[in-house]
Design goal:
- By secondary structure, the chain is mostly helical.
- 80% of the residues lie in helices and 0% in strands.
- The chain has helices at residues 3-23, 27-50, 56-80, 85-107, 116-135, 139-163.
- Helix 2 packs antiparallel against helix 3 and helix 2 packs antiparallel against helix 5 (116-135).
- It is globular and about 50 Å long.
- The mean pLDDT is 92.
């Protein structure tokens, strides 16, 4: 097991810790755990590339851990009333759609690399979640954060499909 993969596993283990702290109302502790988990994504990616520790496990689990962390936080915010459920549905739709697109591409021996807009979407979402943890009780803040998350999610999803529409030409 590589160092990068261990960090990914730790990130996944931090998700229930984050949720327990968030539901307990310990927002600063939840924020600290969320930030730690979010930063671990950059660290494990750097280690994997820099020290040649890229593995099939990491390729699969790293993005899955990110999605689990973000969606766990967003579901918490829906329950708390800081985010509408439709916003989470849009994020889920985009994640499943892009994952499906990548699966179709893999069958054609193509790899769809992470797009710049996807990285922006992830950054906006992670920062937005941090903002909601601190200021989520303010409706204007919740609305702005939700709008930014939805806008970057829709743009990123559209870009993936538009740039890779040829993947569907030869689908049988």
């Amino acid at each position: 097991m590589t160092t990068a993969n261990r960090i990914t596993i730790v990130r996944m283990a931090l998700i229930p810790v984050f949720l327990v702290l968030a539901y307990a109302g310990l927002r600063w502790a939840a924020l600290a755990v969320f930030i730690l988990a979010s930063l671990s994504d950059m660290v494990d990616g750097y280690i994997a590339r820099h020290y040649h520790q890229v593995t099939d496990f990491g390729k699969f689990m790293d993005p899955l851990a990110d999605k689990m962390l973000v969606l766990a936080a967003m579901v918490f915010f829906v329950e708390k009333g800081s985010m509408p459920g439709w916003a989470v549905a849009i994020v889920l739709f985009r994640e499943f759609g892009v994952s499906g697109l990548r699966l179709v591409a893999v069958e054609q021996q193509r790899v769809i690399a992470a797009a710049w807009s996807g990285k922006v979407k992830t950054t906006v979402t992670m920062i937005g979640i941090c903002v909601l943890l601190v200021f989520g009780d303010i409706p204007l803040v919740s609305g702005i954060v939700t709008g930014l998350i939805v806008a970057t999610t829709l743009y990123s999803g559209a870009e993936y499909f538009i740039k890779n529409k040829d993947v569907f030409r030869d689908v049988k």
